[in-house]
């Protein structure tokens, strides 16, 4: 596990433990301490919830719903010694709101090798499924890949990026892996985690956030119950989404729809300050203001939400240092 960021020490790391336990406790068998709860020592699966929560709290700007939903779902799933089905999360929101960042954090804090772990599998339409005319071959390859890797390690993480750019029908090969069956193709797969990421539903989420602002409601008052129906409808109505007319939706195999709200000016400021700290630099008001001045906000009248979220913050900072 990499060193913690921002002063957050993962409980699973040796240094963090030595800083928290007494000299007597340091003599314990640390390996068994980190492995005896929920059979965590499977493959390189080393969940560190304390580190994850700390990192999310410090670095994920403006996403109270996403932070709470992801942590709650993960804890319940990982701490269940015999889950009845894999954990399936679907992340939705405008570009630059933190979806990919959260998925990378999950890999980092769940697996010792992070995104480089042999048990973390990242799929991109542009890279892995670029030609819609080859969909039948992609189906065969994807099914074989998932089945083979779950056979090698049941504690696997599968990330599917840009779901709104996938050819409809491809994801249907995953249906047997996502449901509550005990064994599929001879493989025990119930401890796997699947994460699907898309911008679908982003416009609808933005509209809910805008209406809340017009009503003078705090964004922290926005609840999942307001967003789930509009996200579901957006997926069902989008013929370019990978779950369009999918049995995965019809059979309710998505455990949690995770909405990412649009980012306001103070959230972008938070991202700039985080990036400066990441670069080892002191906060600079001139850099922060320059990045904000170069950021486009919408709607035209209110100038409330960042068009690109925090997506271009890192690249923009370089111009002003």
Tell me briefly what this model is.
The chain has 321 residues and is an alpha/beta fold. It has helices at 14-20, 30-35, 49-59, 64-78, 99-110, 125-128, 135-152, 175-178, 202-214, 224-237, 247-250, 265-278, 285-293, 313-320; strands at 87-93, 120-123, 157-160, 193-198, 256-260, 297-298, 305-306.
Layout of secondary structure:
Elements: H1 14-20, H2 30-35, H3 49-59, H4 64-78, E1 87-93, H5 99-110, E2 120-123, H6 125-128, H7 135-152, E3 157-160, H8 175-178, E4 193-198, H9 202-214, H10 224-237, H11 247-250, E5 256-260, H12 265-278, H13 285-293, E6 297-298, E7 305-306, H14 313-320
Parallel strand pairs: 1-4, 1-5, 2-3, 3-4
Antiparallel strand pairs: 6-7
Distance between the termini: 31 Å
Report the total helices. Answer: 14
- Fraction of residues in helices? 40-55%
According to CATH, what is the topology of the largest domain? Rossmann fold
Rg (C-alpha, Å): 21 Å
Overall structural class, as computed from helix and strand content, comes to alpha/beta
Arithmetic mean of pLDDT: 87
| Run of helices and strands | HHHHEHEHHEHEHHHEHHEEH
Question: How are the strands of the biggest sheet laid out side by side?
Answer: 2-3-4-1-5
CATH level 1 class label of the largest domain? Alpha Beta
Query: What would you say the CATH architecture of the largest domain is?
Result: 3-Layer(aba) Sandwich
Please state roughly what percent of the residues sit in beta strands, choosing from under 5%, 5-15%, 15-25%, 25-35%, 35-45% or over 45%. Answer: 5-15%
Strands, count: 7
Per the principal axes of the C-alpha atoms, what is the gross shape?
A: globular
Q: Determine the CATH superfamily of the largest domain.
A: P-loop containing nucleotide triphosphate hydrolases
Low-pLDDT residue intervals, each spanning 5 or more residues? 1-6, 9-40
> How many distinct domains?
2
Describe the main β-sheet briefly: 5 strands, parallel
């Amino acid at each position: 596990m990499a060193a913690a960021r921002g002063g957050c020490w993962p409980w699973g790391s040796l240094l963090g433990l030595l800083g928290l336990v007494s000299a007597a406790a340091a003599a314990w068998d640390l390996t068994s301490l980190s492995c005896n709860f929920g059979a965590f020592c499977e493959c390189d699966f080393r969940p560190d919830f304390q580190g994850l929560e700390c990192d999310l709290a410090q670095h994920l700007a403006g996403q109270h719903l996403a932070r709470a939903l992801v942590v709650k779902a993960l804890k319940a799933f990982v701490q269940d010694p015999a889950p009845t089905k894999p954990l399936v999360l679907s992340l939705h929101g405008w570009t630059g709101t933190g979806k990919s960042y959260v998925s990378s954090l999950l890999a980092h804090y769940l697996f010792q090798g992070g995104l480089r772990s042999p048990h973390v599998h990242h799929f991109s339409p542009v890279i892995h499924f670029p030609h819609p005319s080859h969909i039948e071959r992609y189906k065969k390859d994807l099914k074989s890949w998932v089945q083979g890797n779950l056979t090698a390690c049941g504690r696997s993480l599968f990330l599917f990026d840009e779901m709104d750019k996938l050819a409809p029908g491809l994801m249907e090969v995953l249906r047997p892996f996502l449901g509550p069956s005990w064994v599929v193709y001879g493989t025990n797969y119930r401890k796997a985690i699947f994460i699907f990421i898309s911008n679908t539903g982003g416009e609808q989420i933005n509209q809910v956030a805008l209406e809340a602002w017009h009503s003078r409601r705090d964004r922290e008052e926005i609840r999942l119950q307001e967003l789930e129906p509009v996200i579901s409808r957006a997926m069902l109505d989008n013929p370019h989404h990978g779950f369009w007319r999918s049995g995965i939706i019809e059979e309710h195999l998505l455990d949690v729809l995770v909405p990412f709200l649009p980012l306001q000016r103070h959230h972008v400021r938070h991202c700039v300050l985080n990036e400066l700290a990441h670069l080892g630099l002191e906060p600079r008001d001139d850099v922060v203001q320059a990045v904000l001045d170069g950021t486009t906000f919408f709607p035209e009248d209110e100038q409330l939400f960042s068009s690109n979220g925090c997506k271009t913050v890192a690249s923009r900072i370089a111009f002003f240092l």
